[in-house]
Amino acid sequence: MNVKQIVVDELHRPARKNYPRRRVLLKGLHDIWQADTVIMSNFPDGKFKYLLTVIDCLSKKAWVEPLKNKSGIEVAKALQNIIENQAKISPRNLQTDLGTEFYNPHVNRLLEKYKINHYSTYSVMKASMVERFNRTLKTWMWKMFNIQGNYKWVENLPKLMYKYNNESIHRSIGMKPSEVTENNESDIIKKLSQQPNSIVRKTPKFKVGDHVRISKYKTVFTKGYLPSWSTEIFKVTQVRKTVPITYFLQDSNGENVLGGFYEQELAKVKFPNVYLVEKILKKKNNKVLLKWLGFPNNKNTWENCKNLVIFLLYYLRNTWEPIVYTYLILSYIFLILFK
């Protein structure tokens, strides 16, 4: 198998998206809230095109506010309404993704007012509890659309939320979200901590200095034929023996990549210095300007034609017939001697 085929196989090997992750440690009710926005622009209801969804990670109680847009002002206003009029309490911590709808001066001022610690993770599973709630809510909304025969949803949000919080038993806590109180929160914490943990501590799969690709997380709507792994290659710089083990990386410019990675998100590469050429952009004297596959235009480089020929001859030596390979070698020597 030639080098190009190996690199292509590395890019397209299957990538796992379901695997054990580190647990969220909860101290009680309203210790951690997760927030997210849901796009409804294909089914607008009047001026409203988005949803702000918030969930308490212990009780699983959720709150929703319609949004006209995802501006910082609009999101801050909706979050304030949830804190003051729906939940009537503020959390100690708020976890969101890194979107500008959450990281802006308007939301920052609101969080400072209530002394809420705001943080994000860099995993593809950014705020898994609220994302799971979003799927439940959208499933219920689409059933409602089919029954109604229209896409009116703003006026029906309170009914859906009452059903979720007061009528539906959540599997992980064994009760309805509204039934979780300060009187039984310790029982819920104990119940969650005693749930089976499939994570087994083991020796690290990668070591410092290994070169790896990063998994491109795929949703159900992502084209299956697209590459599953990054074209860029990274170096492992740190291995932390957490449960499960996490790895920290550095890019080709020597800059640290934000966040840690699980072993299922990484794949070791066989040829760390081999990249695929997408196309030749320009030729000047004995150099060519190359566009590298999967890299932005600012990564285009000028390469010496002779170096490229030597590289090709070296890596094709075991894939072509000896007579063809010998012909190429002699042709190259002829060009060098009689140029």
Automatic annotation (TrEMBL):
Keywords linked to the UniProt accession: Membrane, Transmembrane, Transmembrane helix
Membrane-crossing segments per the record: 322-338
Origin: domain of life: Eukaryota
Coiled coil region boundaries: none
BP-aspect Gene Ontology terms: DNA integration
Residue intervals of the Chromo domain: 275-308
InterPro entries according to UniProt: Chromo-like_dom_sf (IPR016197), Chromo/chromo_shadow_dom (IPR000953), Integrase_cat-core (IPR001584), RNaseH-like_sf (IPR012337), RNaseH_sf (IPR036397)
Gene3D superfamilies, per the entry: 2.40.50.40, Ribonuclease H-like superfamily/Ribonuclease H
Alphabetized GO MF terms: nucleic acid binding
One of the record's GO cellular component terms: chromosome
Domain Integrase catalytic: 16-185
Protein name: Integrase catalytic domain-containing protein
Organism of this sequence: Triatoma infestans (Assassin bug)
Source taxonomy: Eukaryota, Metazoa, Ecdysozoa, Arthropoda, Hexapoda
